[in-house]
Each structure stands twice: as structure tokens, then as C-alpha cells.
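sry for the spam today, last one i promise. C-alpha cells for design, 470 residues
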């Protein structure tokens, strides 16, 4: 599963009401904010939704900590001329909305920067100040965050997809170890520090500016399959008792970086209970389903997490994977069919080879973007192979894991993503689809809409349905 062995314990369950205490008795009994919390702790409520959000959507957590979060200096802008992950605020760094299919070569590792400074916005839509839309990032870091430094985003929830290297993430609620083939979600506002126990790291991030991720509805599938709730893991409480060291708190706010100082650790939560917390998931536990008769189902059957818009069934963001699976469909073109989609599709490859792109251009640590209504599908090499393959049961994607960030929004590309990263493949279409050849064979006789038969090349008659144009 990765380069590091698991070293932490976890609480199991997605959207489960969890409670955890590092010191027995640190959680108040029967009250959230007693006059004097146990052991002289401070009670602090962390709200991930409005107080009055419907009960089934409400996400709040009570923290019992040595000192409250508000004890810090004023936030001041940091690196304001260079650090910007909301480029619509700067006209000279505008987002480009283009219909072209795009594909990127593998993004470089960068051993010179830490987690915070490794974040590069590739594409996105919406505005974090309006809590609408999403941002798509590449991260590539080679250094631990400073020993007394923590980071949080006020802009949205981070869904982190490691591609190379392990992330040891210390959060306010406890520790997460996240390796390739695992993902984690760190909700808006939760502070954390990232260290790199196995060296440089690289991967992908979807930042959700609105709402939170949930499990997709299963409908006729029933009550199990896809990502099962029991396989999601949340940290257990662990704390630092440090009230004398100078700490720097970094905040991403409206896409810009701010910093404040404080003389106590932000990781001083002795106990917590609630529904708002970071979590991780092993993609190898995804229970894949598929056709056992004919035709390729919609890729929505591979959805791990979703964030719905105000129109049910239409997602601001879906996180979809293409795991190893058996194909048994008869008389069926087994790779994904060619399609144009009202949704935008950003794909990445964690490892292996994606079964719909066997031409060699879609590589681990690379990416592609097929925007709203931009046609795409298997490359010419894959089409040729799949059209002539024997249709015996076969396993595809063995040793591979591709994923997709899908959105109903039109996703724009940043200057960094389009040019500065120098990874865009100029010959994507030429390599993938322009080599496709026509296979249409015109029959000797063609039946027109009126039911009569005419010889090839002979004009139809005035009985043609629905009308005749002279």
C-alpha cells in the first residue's frame, strides 16, 4: 500500500458520531460546556455547518483543549506577491476557460518546498469567498513543515490523493498516516502539520469550496458495495502539552496566505466528540460492481465520495476511481465508450496503466482534463485492441489505480496549469484520437424512412418520412 507501515490507531465509520479522549475522563458527561471542564481544559466548538443546518447535514465537533484557538496574534499577509490560489483576484493571472482536451505529463517532484508551498492550483471553478465551486491542485514537496508550524484552509475541504510518498499528518483531532492508494479529507478550518517520513511526496488535491463530501446514494444496488462506511478511519485524540514555545499558524484565506503567532501548540486537544473531523480511506477496500451481461455501465458506479449541488444527482464534485476489476460483459466494447459530458472530468493516475488509455501518454503523476461537452474516450490504440479482443472474462487495471474529479461546473485552467508547469502535451489529440480510422461500410441497398428500398446512390421519393424537401 505504500512506503510506510501503519503506526496509528483509528476510529472506524463514515459520518459516524465519534468521541475520543487521550486522558480518561477528559470528556464531560451529559454536557458540552460545563462551568469547569475536566482537568482545567477549555471547551471549544468547531462548526463545519451552520448551527441551524438540518440534523442529517449538521457537522459540529466539541474540542477540549489546553488553550483555545483564539489565543494568537493578528494574522498578517505572507508572501502576498507570490502565494495565490485564487487567481481570479488577479487579472494578470486569470483562469482560462477553453474547450480543448488537455493532458499533462507527470508533474515534477520538488524537494525544495514544504507542504504549504507545494500547492499549485491547476484548475478550478467558482469562488471560495462565496463558498461556491472547487479548486484542483497538484502538490509536490520534499521538506517537512517547520517543527512549530501548522496550516489550515478557511476556503474549503481538502480531499488529498497521494501518488508518491507518505504523508504523516498531525491534526487537532489526532494523527493520520496517508499513503498512495489511500485518500484523506481534511475539512475546512482544521489545523494540521505535514511531515514526510519516506521522503518527497507528490499527489493531487480537490478543494471543495461548498458543502462537504458524503457517500453516494446506492439506489437499487441496496445497502452495501462501493465505499462502505465502516472502512473510513478517523484519528484518535492525542495531544501536546506545550504552552511556552512560539508557534506559527498559517491560514489560506480567499486563496492567499496569512500567518499569526502564538505561544502554545495548536495540537493540544485532549479529547473531542462530534461529526466534524478528518478521515482517511483505503481505495483497495472499494467494493466494485459492474455489468455481468452486456454494455458498460455509467462510470458513476465507481464513485467513492460525492458533494451534491442543490439539484439532487448533480454533483459539484465527485471523486471516482477505476480500480482493478473483472470484465465479463458479452458482445460489448469493454472500455468506456466515447462520450461528451455536461460534467467536467479531471483525471489522474496513481500507479499502473489506465485501461482506456494504453497509448502511453497517460502516465502516473500526470493528468487530463475533458471539460464540459468536450468529446473524449479510448485512444486509437485502445479502440483497436478492444474492438478485436476475445471476450473472455478478463481482469483489467491489475496493479493500477486511476481516479477522476468530476464536476457539473465548467472548469478553468490557471496560468500555472496551462503554461508555467510546462507539462501540457501539445499532441494529445494527435496521439489519441486523430489516428482513429472510419470503419463504416455502406450496404448495397439502404432502406429509407418510408419503408421502401432504394439502390445505393438513388434519391429517395416524396413518400419519405417525415417530409419531402424539393
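last one done:
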Amino acid at each position: 500500500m505504500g512506503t510506510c507501515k501503519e503506526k496509528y490507531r483509528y476510529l472506524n465509520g463514515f459520518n459516524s458520531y465519534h468521541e475520543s479522549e487521550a486522558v480518561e475522563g477528559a470528556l464531560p458527561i451529559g454536557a458540552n460546556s460545563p462551568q469547569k471542564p475536566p482537568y482545567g481544559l477549555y471547551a471549544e466548538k468547531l462548526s463545519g455547518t451552520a448551527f441551524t443546518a438540518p440534523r442529517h447535514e449538521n457537522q459540529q465537533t466539541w474540542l477540549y483543549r489546553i488553550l483555545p484557538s483564539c489565543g494568537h496574534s493578528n494574522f498578517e499577509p505572507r508572501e502576498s506577491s507570490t502565494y495565490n490560489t485564487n487567481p481570479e483576484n488577479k487579472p494578470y493571472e486569470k483562469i482560462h476557460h477553453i474547450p480543448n482536451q488537455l493532458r499533462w505529463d507527470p508533474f515534477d517532484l520538488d524537494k525544495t518546498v514544504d507542504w504549504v508551498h507545494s500547492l499549485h492550483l491547476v484548475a478550478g471553478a467558482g469562488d471560495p469567498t462565496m463558498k461556491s465551486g472547487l479548486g484542483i491542485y497538484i502538490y509536490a514537496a520534499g521538506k517537512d513543515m517547520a517543527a512549530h508550524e501548522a496550516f489550515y484552509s478557511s476556503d474549503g475541504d481538502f480531499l488529498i490523493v497521494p501518488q508518491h510518498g507518505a504523508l504523516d499528518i498531525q491534526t487537532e483531532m489526532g494523527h493520520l498516516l496517508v499513503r498512495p492508494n489511500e485518500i484523506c479529507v481534511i475539512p475546512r478550518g482544521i489545523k494540521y502539520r505535514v511531515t514526510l517520513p519516506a521522503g518527497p511526496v507528490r499527489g493531487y488535491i480537490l478543494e471543495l469550496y461548498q458543502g462537504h463530501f458524503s457517500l453516494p446514494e446506492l439506489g437499487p444496488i441496496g445497502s452495501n458495495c462501493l465505499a462502505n462506511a465502516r472502512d473510513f478511519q478517523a484519528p484518535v485524540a492525542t495531544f501536546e502539552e506545550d504552552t511556552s514555545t512560539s508557534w506559527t499558524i498559517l491560514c489560506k484565506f480567499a486563496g492567499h496566505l496569512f500567518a499569526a503567532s502564538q505561544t502554545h501548540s495548536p495540537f493540544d486537544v485532549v479529547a473531542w466528540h462530534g461529526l466534524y473531523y478528518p478521515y482517511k480511506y483505503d481505495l483497495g477496500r472499494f467494493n466494485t460492481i459492474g455489468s455481468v451481461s452486456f454494455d458498460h455501465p455509467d462510470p458513476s458506479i465507481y464513485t467513492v465520495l460525492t458533494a451534491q449541488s442543490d439539484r439532487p444527482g448533480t454533483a459539484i464534485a465527485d471523486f471516482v476511481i477505476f480500480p482493478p476489476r473483472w470484465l465479463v460483459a458479452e458482445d460489448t466494447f469493454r472500455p468506456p465508450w466515447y462520450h461528451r459530458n455536461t460534467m467536467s472530468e479531471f483525471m489522474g493516475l496513481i500507479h499502473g496503466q489506465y485501461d482506456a488509455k494504453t497509448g502511453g501518454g497517460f502516465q502516473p503523476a500526470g493528468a487530463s482534463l475533458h471539460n464540459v461537452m468536450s468529446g473524449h474516450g479510448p485512444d486509437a490504440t485502445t479502440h483497436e485492441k478492444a474492438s478485436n479482443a476475445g471476450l473472455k472474462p478478463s481482469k483489467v487495471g491489475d496493479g493500477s489505480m486511476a481516479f477522476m474529479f468530476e464536476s457539473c461546473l465548467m472548469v478553468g485552467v490557471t496560468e500555472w496549469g496551462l503554461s508555467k508547469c510546462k507539462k501540457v502535451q501539445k499532441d494529445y489529440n494527435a496521439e489519441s484520437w486523430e489516428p482513429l480510422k472510419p470503419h463504416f461500410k455502406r450496404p448495397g441497398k439502404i432502406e429509407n424512412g418510408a419503408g421502401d428500398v432504394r439502390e445505393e446512390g438513388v434519391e429517395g421519393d416524396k413518400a419519405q418520412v417525415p417530409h419531402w424537401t424539393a
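The radius of gyration is 26 Å. ok im logging off now
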